[in-house]
Amino acid sequence: MIATAFGTLAPFERVPGRGAEADLYKVFLGRSALMGWSRMGSSESPPIPLLWGMNEAELTLDGGLQIGFVQVGLDNGLSMAIPPLIQGTDDSLRWFGEAAIDSWEITAVDISPNQPSNLFDLLDASNWFPRAVGNPTRAVVTLAVDRGDEQVTQTILNDLQRNSAAPFDFEPLVDLPREHAGAREWPPISWVVTDTGLTLTLPEWSPEAIGWVAARVAESALSLESPPRHFSVRVTRIAPE
Fold this sequence. Notes:
This protein has 241 residues and is of the alpha+beta class. 24% of the residues lie in helices and 30% in strands. The protein is globular and about 50 Å long. The chain starts with a strand and ends with a strand.
């Protein structure tokens, strides 16, 4: 699974060890170990519950919109690993500088068809967020799936809209420009990207809230009789109307 952040990152200057040449991999791994999401150390380290094994991470400060990504191999399920993955990636990027993230993308590859559901835990977790919000954030959710699963995209979006509830209100489907669409380039996968997205009101624009939304999309995908093998969900903040 890959978390990709889009926006801007202004690296800290004259802070020893925190330049762009530092290693996002090591920073993210340290953050994950500190929170008990992944483990640093030898095989003789005491066993603890793990969410993932580390694969790759990189800052991508090349003048484009993408500022960094983290890739992990999941150990214990998909949905409930998404919020900590986004949180850990956000924390790690901010270790390097001032970040303004406008969009997050989660890409899941080779999903097991018998993934356990964590929907009820996820719904309970929504109690973390306030129900009455003075300045809610508007966003849009877009999906991409492998070509063999393209018929499921509309089913997932319809399920989210049908089962909408505060404080995350999924709203009407809208037509969107291509730049809002998800799907990280991955040569073995023939992504099908649509120009339709689902508008959404979030209680706040934060890693926790975006993680909740992406995990809810994953739960919808996993609930299908034939879930997609690969999917990518992107949550993008949009300007108020």
